[in-house]
Sequence to fold (485 residues):
Amino acid sequence: MAHVIVVTSGKGGVGKTTTSAAVAAGLAMKGKKTVVIDFDVGLRNLDLVMGCERRVVFDFINVINGDANLNQALIRDKRLDQLYVFPTSQTRDKDALKRNGVEKVLDELKQSFDYIVCDSPAGIEHGALTALYFADSAIVVTNPEVSSVRDSDRIIGILAAKSRRAERGEAPVNVHLLLTRYSAERVAKGEMLTVEDVQEILSIPLLGIIPESESVLRASNTGTPVIFDDQSPAGRAYSDAVARFLGETREMRFVKPERRSLFRTLFGRA
Amino acid sequence: MVLRLGEAGLADFEQTLRSQIGRSPQFFAKAPVVLDLKDSQGLAAAADFAELKRLLRGLDLVPIGVQNANPAQREAAAEAGLGSFNGAAAQRRAAPTQPAPRPAAGATRSMLVTEPVRSGTQIYARGGDLIVLKSVSPGAEIIADGHIHVYGALRGRAIAGATGDGAARIFVKRLEAELVSIAGRYLVSDQIAAEHLGRPAQIMLDDEHMVVLGN
Fold:
């Protein structure tokens, strides 16, 4: 049975789309037939990051509304034949995401895919709630700063209360923490939260730490998911995270252990 | 908040309410109020509800509606400009991820929460104590009519003695709260002495003043 993964965060700009693209490509590299869906209706970005923006004809909303079928809308990646991109509409808004329609499309995708990666919009409104509703697993993308951690905490609470699994009383959504834009140097200077600080507040298992890296911006601008760049620390960190997601054991890289904690510094002062 | 109307007349009700409010006037100032009619099914005249509204306004409360009303009461309340709430639904909204089942009659009135309390969540232990085994995140709110115990870090808000019990206390394994309150008195994070932050603490009222005790 296909597995639905939502990539979510609450806060914007933390790296959801970058992560969705990298994780989907990583799963496909491991031989899993994967589709990545853009739920950010009206702010279509995933196709750019995946480098398929010039091949978009039909989109997610067209399929939900029955104006096109799946085969017309799915875009096969040119680099990996197990990877498909399902772009969204730039002209519509989140209200076009009808829950019944989304469910029907996901059920159809489940027939032929191993993994369905849902790239959630920011926020905790209709778009984000629809993206996480059908999830089996969640990757909560968090930056090492207090506002991002608080928003992630909120999203984890929503996953536990408002997902379909929660509503039906099934096993809870499997929630993973992915710490992105992590700079060991800035952590050392006390300008960023440490991994331990973030984990202590969120108390969910750590899937990986993606170091802040210029290669991420370069990858976005060239439409190549950063996981293809096996020279860059960010690319290698995403490969590790995908391997861990599939149950492999990989050592955490790119964390220099750091004694001093910003959290304690903040609360230590009067 | 919800006020339950008893069998007694309006004069008694006003008397009781006035003394309750007198104990912590700030807590009740302009508080939105829903009247629970479970124990006063006889009250059904629009004039009664209009009188109740005047009474509550006079006490600086803001009456919004009624709950557990029978059809006649609903109609009379509507005529007096009060909405009707479904009591059970209102409770569900107040505690969306309330993990513990409601205690059965005769069982303990305490509520036990075994999961972390996430940002944006509100949990209310009505009529009893609240025990949280994990941490309470910033932006979360835990409320109890009795004591509050947190066996993790308290980083959000904790409100004990929510209905005015000044003897209620808050016990935490690690105090990093945004706000702690007992019976309407409160301390915000800035007012908590640095020596208590990040440490086990007990918070209580001593002669109407909030006191933080370390150990």
Remarks:
- Residues 45 and 76 of chain B are 6 Å apart (CA to CA).
